Amino acid sequence: METDESTQALADVTLGRGMRTRVPSVRLWDFVVNTLSIPRPPPTTTSSSSHLPSGNGNFYSLSDVMDSSRFSLEHRIFLAVVATDVEPRSFTEAMQDPGWREAMHTEIRALESNET
Known about the structure:
Blueprint: H1 2-12, H2 62-65, H3 73-84, H4 91-95, H5 98-113
């Protein structure tokens, strides 16, 4: 019976908050995002293949084609902070970080002062 099979398939699906499969936004499929990485020492193997992806899974990482030696020290520090900073994935994670808590309080104060 087809209805029994479809009912069983629906029963096997786990429902609830946080249970759905997460996928990256389709809006970013046409773009290469988050490709900055901190340079690592070269691998110890003697064979090198330029067609293989780097350790972070990107075929053409910015660190492979961009030289930061011409940037000022301040700008290199800025790039390192931007590349290593991890945004919280949930409100709970954001509330654990004092910097994010302060940013949220600042936003709320601005909204209240604008009466929006």
